[in-house]
């Protein structure tokens, strides 16, 4: 890797580490970032996910050096690049940036676009530049023959891979992907995302992806940072943020959630589904309980009964809405909060079991999460 002074040091364990501390940014009276702290380990991938307007792109632009923070610091490979009196402009940060539409130059060929990324912007060519362009095309799984085409003569997924190759040409320490897959249709999005993840992983480049798509964040990243209202609500592994969200808004943003009134006593919660194992919590007494729909399993021996109200079929799975009925099995504690007639949603892979009126028996798998009671 080459740093801003032109020297190379790939042995420094800090190379590629990103540290963002207490970052704030306002536009006029609007406070867009309100103290963001985030660490990204060298060679790892972090997805910043959150609703529209939560400040994701602003954070990425501050990391890239397209904007200056009001306060707080950005450090790259252990060196401050913004804040604390430091300011390293974007083109000296050794950071790659891939925008949503790829932002390729339409008047240049694919090869020239990539060569533009080479240090010195070797648009004119030269044998070494051509060899490097071929190497970069290969890295992103594109045929060399595409080098002579214009961007509009290749597909959307190929354009994104060209944009990645152009960004890789500078051998960045950090790659920033700003909604880089959002404009692609579903199949192409998954394939392109896989290629990009594999290329960046193999090159050991630290990567930050901004997306509003929670499934993309969970599948792409080692670490997911959930942004809401200009702060990070939770930063953790994909599994942890999905199965152990810190609050209800995070739970609901990351996927479907079944929310139930419950009463916590020790490591168990009592609710309309009976007594449910609980993830470790400090909450006691009345709570809101969160289960993912896939934790409620259809099981002929299951202690919970419900009647199918309706289903939402979407191919491999259906969301099935059930009305809970009484008649839990003996030995299964009945909840003081049990509300016969309560509607819950579950997921099921067999759409044929789910005709309205069918009675199903259910059991809970895994642990529920407790949040403070609503209101
Ligand atoms: N240069 C700017 N000038 C004024 N306001 C801005 C500027 N950039 C962003 N904003 C405002 O800051 C807020 C956050 O914008 P930002 O683009 O960071 O959010 P986002 O989470 O990336 O949203 P989206 O997913 O819709 O892109 C928005 O209200 C936006 O209008």
Automatic annotation (TrEMBL):
Coiled coil: none annotated. Residues 18-254 form the ABC transporter domain. Keywords: ATP-binding, Cell inner membrane, Cell membrane, Ion transport, Iron, Iron transport, Membrane, Nucleotide-binding, Translocase, Transport. GO terms for molecular function: ATP binding. InterPro entries: AAA+_ATPase, ABC_SmlMolc_Importer, ABC_transporter-like_ATP-bd, ABC_transporter-like_CS, ABC_transpr_FbpC, Mo/tungstate-bd_C_term_dom, P-loop_NTPase, Transp-assoc_OB_typ2. PANTHER family: PUTRESCINE TRANSPORT ATP-BINDING PROTEIN POTG (PTHR42781:SF5), SPERMIDINE/PUTRESCINE IMPORT ATP-BINDING PROTEIN POTA (PTHR42781). This is ABC transporter ATP-binding protein.
């Amino acid at each position: 890797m080459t740093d801003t002074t032109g020297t190379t040091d790939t042995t420094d364990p800090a190379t590629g580490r990103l540290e963002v501390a207490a970052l704030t940014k306002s536009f006029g009276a609007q406070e867009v970032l309100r103290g963001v702290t985030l660490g990204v380990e060298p060679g790892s991938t972090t997805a910043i996910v959150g609703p529209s307007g939560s400040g994701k792109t602003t954070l990425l632009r501050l990391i890239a050096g397209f904007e200056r923070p009001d306060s707080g610091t950005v450090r790259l490979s252990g060196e401050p690049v913004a804040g604390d009196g430091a300011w390293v402009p974007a083109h000296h940060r050794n950071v790659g940036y891939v925008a949503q539409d790829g932002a390729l130059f339409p008047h240049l060929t694919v090869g020239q676009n990539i060569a533009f990324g080479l240090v010195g912007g070797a648009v004119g060519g030269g044998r070494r530049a051509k060899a490097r362009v071929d190497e970069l095309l290969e890295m992103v799984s594109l045929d060399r023959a595409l080098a002579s085409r214009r961007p509009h003569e290749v597909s959307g997924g190929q354009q994104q891979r060209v944009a990645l190759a152009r960004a890789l040409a500078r051998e960045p320490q950090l790659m920033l992907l700003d909604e880089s897959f959002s404009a692609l249709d579903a199949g192409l999005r998954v394939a392109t995302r896989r290629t990009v993840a594999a290329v960046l992983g193999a090159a050991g480049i630290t990567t930050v992806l901004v997306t509003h798509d929670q499934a993309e964040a969970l599948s792409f990243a080692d670490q997911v940072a959930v942004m809401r209202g200009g702060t990070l609500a939770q930063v953790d592994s994909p599994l942890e943020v999905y199965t152990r969200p810190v609050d209800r808004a995070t739970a609901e943003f990351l996927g479907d959630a079944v929310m139930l009134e419950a009463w916590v006593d020790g490591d168990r919660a009592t609710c309309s589904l009976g007594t449910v194992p609980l993830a470790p919590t400090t909450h006691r007494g009345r709570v809101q309980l969160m289960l993912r729909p896939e934790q409620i399993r259809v099981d002929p021996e299951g202690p919970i009964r419900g009647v199918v109200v309706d289903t939402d079929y979407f191919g491999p799975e259906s969301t099935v809405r059930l009305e809970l009925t009484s008649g839990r099995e003996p030995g299964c504690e009945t909840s003081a909060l049990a509300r016969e007639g309560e509607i819950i949603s579950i997921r099921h892979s067999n759409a044929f079991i789910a005709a309205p009126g069918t009675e199903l028996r259910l059991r809970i798998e895994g642990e529920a999460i407790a949040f403070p009671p609503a209101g």
